[in-house]
Design brief:
Layout: E1 8-23, E2 28-44, E3 48-52, H1 59-66, E4 74-79, E5 82-83, H2 89-96, E6 99-102, H3 116-126, H4 132-145, H5 162-174, E7 180-184, H6 192-209, E8 212-216, H7 220-226, E9 229-234, E10 237-243, H8 244-249, H9 254-260, H10 268-273, E11 314-315, E12 321-322
Helix pairs in contact: 3-4, 3-5, 4-5, 5-6
Amino acid sequence: MDTSSNDKVMKVENLKMYFPITRGLLRRKVGEIKAVDDISFEINKNETLGLVGESGCGKTTTGRCILRLYEPTSGSIIFSGNDISKMPERKLKNFRRNMGTIFQDPYGSLNPRQSAGGIVGDPLLVHQMATKRDVKDKVAELFRIVGLDPDMMDRVPHEFSGGQRQRIGIARALACSPSLIICDEPISALDVSIQAQIINLLEELQEKLALTYLFIAHDLAVVQHISDRVGVMYLGRIMEIAESGELYENPLHPYTKALLSAIPIPDPVAEKTRTRIVLKGEVPSPVNPPPGCHFHPRCQLAIPECSQARPPLRDVGSGHYVACIRV
């Protein structure tokens, strides 16, 4: 992961996000949920880093820590050369302007009482990037960029379809011309036919506006299509990071292999002949994760050493990083 610092938009180092478990009237702490457990990665300019894994593995929590919607337990988040992980709110506002976010639910992420134009124009007013007189023209331009008719600016969200609502969410994310956009499962709530349109729009915008994406998803086929590099998460930790083509053609971690074996193949003959890797047991609780490698209780290749020490995320060649002592 050694890249010139000029090419890095963000660098996350040893990030942890533990949520306290409290009980009783005095809210005494009795434990903690290790949602994100000491992860490190970086995002380069104009690239899409995909973050995949099962539900509950910590993908969304990672995105929210980067946006500072959550206060990280420890670790550093270097953005534009500054560590924003513990930065006070008054200073954070200037950095937040350069980070956009597209939420998973286009129905719940838009204010139902506000017009579409008002939703998209709010960031411009909050960050003082346009006067009230200029906002309407800028919002109209944003509507055109995402493929919406500016005449629809006065409509409220319930008058739009799901795909149109997500386009409004994308326009809002673009309003302040951010250098990084966190895409938190932006297509999972949409019909399959609309998903392709939104993915194509995100790719067009990236090329046109030189955007950088952190693309969080659980749909492995979509991540393969849109991502330059892919990180695989399991129970709060990153198991493997590699270029998209390399990861899908040559997965090294046993968990990555199991995930990829679950992707349906649109060929009945190939689907019948391929081997599906079925993992034993259930995902352990993040309240009390297994010692050593978190994946070892379900791993077919596990040996006693796997439960004794956490395997480091190491480079095995060509920028392919894997956290497994058996590789």
